[in-house]
Amino acid sequence: MSDIILSATGLTKTxxxxxxxxxxxxxxxxxxxxxxxxxxxGTTLAxxxxxxxxxxxxxxxxxxxxxxxxxxxxxxxxxxxTLRGDALRAARRHLQMVFQDPxxxxxxxxxxxxxxxxxxxxxxxxxxxERRERVLRMLQRVGLTxxxxxxxxxxxxxxxxxxxxxxRALVLEPxxxxxxxxxxxxxxxxxxxxxxxLKELQQEMGLSYLFISHxxxxxxxVADEVVVMHHGRIVEQGGVEQLYSDPQQEYTRNLLNSIPGxxxxxxxxx
Amino acid sequence: xxxxxxxEGLTVAPVAQPERRLVNNVSFSLKTGRTICxxxxxxxxxxxxxxxxxxxxxxxxxxxxxxxxFQGQDLxxxxxxxxxxxxGKRIGMIFQEPMTSLNPVLNVGFQIGETLTCHLGLTGKxxxxxxxxxxxxxxxxxxxxxxxxxxxxxxxxxxxxxxMSxxxxxxxxxxxxxxxxxxxxxxAQILRLLADLKHRMNMGMxxxxxxxxxxxxxxxxxxxxxxxxxxxxxxxxxxxGKPRHPYTRALLDCVPDAEGRxxxxxxxxxxxxxxxx
Lengths: 270, 277
Known about the structure:
The complex is a heterodimer of chains A (270) and B (277).
Chain A: E1 4-19, E2 25-40, E3 44-48, H1 55-62, E4 70-75, E5 78-79, H2 85-93, E6 95-98, H3 112-122, H4 128-141, H5 158-170, E7 176-180, H6 188-205, E8 208-213, H7 216-222, E9 225-230, E10 233-239, H8 240-245, H9 250-257
Parallel strand pairs in A: 3-8, 3-9, 6-7, 7-8
Antiparallel strand pairs in A: 1-2, 1-4, 4-5, 9-10
Helix pairs in contact in A: 3-4, 3-5, 4-5, 5-6
Chain B: E1 3-14, E2 23-31, E3 35-39, H1 46-54, E4 61-70, E5 73-74, H2 80-86, E6 91-94, H3 108-120, H4 124-137, H5 154-166, E7 172-176, H6 184-201, E8 204-209, H7 212-218, E9 221-226, E10 229-235, H8 236-241, H9 246-252, H10 269-276
Parallel strand pairs in B: 3-8, 3-9, 6-7, 7-8
Antiparallel strand pairs in B: 1-2, 1-4, 4-5, 9-10
């Protein structure tokens, strides 16, 4: 049994949404409804669901980027909600995020070296020379070069930008990385490169991933365990092999049956 | 089966740089009742090929050579005005983004009706009846004609787009990544609907996608494009089952499989340049 590094119990988050003809009414949307999960050290837990299932809200709530209505997030035996100021910042160094859109998540006015080094600066890690060295090593590890440090994000392709996003998250040597749809904006050949890179880095650095995705083929490939979400609730969770081969819930079965490439939509011709 | 579309030696380049061929010497043909999938990565030229057929290339781009013969007529010689009579009437089109392709201030019934008034001169009661029929054909109750796009889900909007595209019973449907923006369960429904309509109306379908799973679901024939060129073409069984070109094989090795965990192999472009040279 591996250790639990991050655990969430009874997470609940509601949004008020304007409704009615002129937006005077309001309805309550439950984005998270009593969600509990556990991430084991060094493994990948995938959260799958369709749009509006609450998977991105879950990611943000786990990292305390959004306040919770109820529930508890325990990271390395500490309740994150009790942390404030410096203590919270220190914990966040170990909780990093890789975002979906490599075009929107990098500041276009900063050079790559600054983008990747900013976290080290904020957390006061090392001298200027040491920081530069760490940024360079990290960039080289994800397949970029020293010359790239002086470039701006627009000079890179989508796949390279995602490498920059990964370097930014991992240069802090975090314990847990939340990857929110990290490959869904990429071509399939680039997607394969990034998935392999994430896997290698996980092994080298002992990372634990919370991997959010709507792509069930990608999840089948990366996950150790899977959580299926629908309308803010967890409908099913389990080991990846078992969940894909023997889904217990109707919703999961329907989702798996919808994966393209499994059933011909076109009738036999002629 | 009659031949519906024959593209021969199609080459597209920027007006300013005619030597930079974005689509290079592309040839294939589509028969009535068949679905041909063009598959490739971004920048492979698959969308430009479809836009060329519809005569919707940006003014900065130009078809520098090749012919596009649709139902025996070479569309290359057609004026923009003449193309308007083909687009929407004899060739239906569906695009990727059902959110942005519809006009938000007009109800969907009006937008479907526009096509019918424009091409077939339908008005009044006859128009209303036909719009209702079309909505039901794509699985939406006829009384939703009064709904506005923002009152519908992504899948329903794409159904509305499909209703518009088949309104004039076109001989051919061009679908450019029609399910890419949709959730997987909705995608499966839309693919089934398209396959069903194609069958019932005996259309030919030119379907553009980057997703091999979708190709496996819907294609009869497959055209694989890479850097503006067709690298492989054949039946879906042959291209997906026994790919001949190294690029097709390399691309298929990148696709994760839902059935089990096979090792992913990213494309080694240096090697690819060597073998395809």
